[in-house]
Amino acid sequence: MLDTDFFRRWMAATASAIQREASRLTDLDAAIGDADHGSNMQRGFTAVTAALQKEPPATPGAVLTLSGRQLISTVGGASGPLYGTLLRRTGKALGEAAEVTRGQLVEALGAGVAAVAQLGGAQAGDKTMLDALLPAVEALEMSFGAARDAAQAGALATVPLQARKGRASYLGERSIGHQDPGATSAALLVAALAEAADTSGGGDA
């Protein structure tokens, strides 16, 4: 079972990963975006960390809902609303349970990803964060490690794609040959989830 501490570890691991990879995310965004994805995400997850420490949530759902709210209020551009919606919708779907199973997380995260797709009007193959998140949710039914690998593969698979949504879509064919920064940060989020499962000593419940 996945308890509140598990979800706090997930957010902490994500914040660490974003901190570590911020420059890379910004470099990727410089090629096809506004060159601010790394700094924006870093600012957002720094705020998430501070909020979770200041007023520790009591349930898994509350951890994600608070985290999503912080991202919406502190992250600029499209990333804040998209990531904020992902976590808030996932948290809402988890409800007020003190513990959840991996299967329940799969279902809730699927609802979160669907909300992101609706908000951004994107789908698989559009060269967005969905190209990492959609295969990750499907693979999470098998294991956390499978979700991590699927997200990483999905992010890499954006390189040959032409962007059809977001700032990168303005470049047309010039967006081809670059890895999508949003898919890359989404893969970091999923990798952090797998890390949280590893440190829990058997989170594949």
Apparent shape: globular
> Percent helix among the residues?
55-70%
CA(first)-CA(last) distance: 5 Å
How large a portion of the residues is in β-strands, by DSSP E? under 5%
H and E string: EHHHHEHHHH
Identify the CATH homologous superfamily. Answer: DhaL domain
Q: State Rg.
A: 16 Å
Which structural class should the secondary elements be placed in? mainly alpha
The major β-sheet equals: 2 strands, antiparallel
CATH architecture: Alpha Horseshoe
How many separate domains make up the residues?
A: 1
- The number of helical runs is 8
**What is the typical, i.e. mean, pLDDT?**
95
Low-confidence stretches: none
CATH topology: Serine Threonine Protein Phosphatase 5, Tetratricopeptide repeat
Q: How are strands sequenced across the largest beta sheet?
A: 1-2
Number of strands: 2
CATH hierarchy, class: Mainly Alpha
